[in-house]
Design goal:
3 helices, rod-shaped
Amino acid sequence: MKNFEEKLRKLEEISEAIKRSDISIEDALKNFEEGIKLARGMEKEIDEIEGKIQILMNSPDEADDGSENSGTEAKKTRQKKSKSGDDSPVLDLFTPNTEVNGTRNG
């Protein structure tokens, strides 16, 4: 399959097929296995994309846009990361200033 959206459509089709009342247990199992493989592959793609985003967001090569807060959050994130000794990238997308109300379960 070519792209993520096509894979998602296929996964939705598989899900609908499994829900049909006239499907045999063998076909349901076959569809389930295909869906699991597809979902795991998609999850891997999402993890790779998130990793790339984290690297870009935490890159020390940030361009200064002239604002006084330019790069402040990324710098804090890098400082937290260096103190913890963890080399994995950290992405701080949801800060108190940027989070949209109602997007997280409280």
